[in-house]
Amino acid sequence: MSSMGPMPDIRDESCSIARSLGVLGERWTFLILRDAFEGLTRFEEFRASLGIASDVLSARLATLVDHGVMAKIDYQQPGQRRRHRYVLTDAGREALPVVAGLQAWGDRHLPREEGPTVLRRAKSSGQSIHIGFVDETGAEVALDDVEFVKTSSYPTERAELLARSAAHPR
């Protein structure tokens, strides 16, 4: 528990970013997702790749399973006890642009002298790809042309706070 008190239940959050961070917001979680996108599925594979403590890995995998990002599937090798594989669900696969966006940001703003460890390319063409905003027609939208439009579900208290902040000279 932090000095600010516990985080509210994610289902009660009006902000979709806060709800998403309630599931995905731990550093280890993004690294687990990275490994899952690279094909790892077994607990021991994740542990070996990440060097993460078993209890932390168990907790992160449980959160991902509980929130439908990964599915836990039993398997058993001959002569061995039953174990679990963790596979991405549709919701998990939809996190790929988030993971790739973090990778692209790191490549650009925290570059390694040796260069990036992976490149993003289209499987079908081999062409280099990047993360961006795309409109309904499929056209890319420049970052300075992106607008977040508040809906009737936007919290009144937050709108009032932003309005008071906007009234101050910058």
Reconstruct the topology from this structure.
Layout: H1 16-24, H2 27-37, H3 43-50, H4 54-66, E1 70-75, E2 83-88, H5 90-93, H6 96-109, E3 133-134, E4 140-141, H7 156-166
Antiparallel strand pairs: 1-2, 3-4
The amount of beta strand, in percent, is 5-15%
Number of helices: 7
Straight-line distance between termini: 35 Å
Name of the CATH homologous superfamily of the largest domain: Winged helix-like DNA-binding domain superfamily/Winged helix DNA-binding domain
**CATH architecture group name of the largest domain:** Orthogonal Bundle
State the CATH topology of the largest domain: Arc Repressor Mutant, subunit A
User: What's the CATH class label of the largest domain?
Assistant: Mainly Alpha
Structural class given helices, strands, pairing? mainly alpha
Mean pLDDT: 92
Taking Cα atoms only, what radius of gyration do you get, to the nearest Å? 20 Å
Largest beta-sheet details: 2 strands, antiparallel
Q: Give helix % range.
A: 40-55%
Number of domains: 2
Low-confidence stretches: 1-5
Output the strand order for the largest sheet.
1-2
How do the SSEs run, as a string of H and E?
Answer: HHHHEEHHEEH
**Shape, please?**
globular
- Give the number of DSSP strands: 4
3D structure, described in words:
By secondary structure, this protein is mainly alpha-helical. It has two domains: 1-94, Winged helix-like DNA-binding domain superfamily/Winged helix DNA-binding domain (Arc Repressor Mutant, subunit A); 96-170, no CATH class. The chain has helices at 16-24, 27-37, 43-50, 54-66, 90-93, 96-109, 156-166, and strands spanning 70-75, 83-88, 133-134, 140-141. A two-stranded antiparallel sheet has the order 1-2. Strand 3 (133-134) and strand 4 form a beta hairpin. The relative contact order is 0.09.
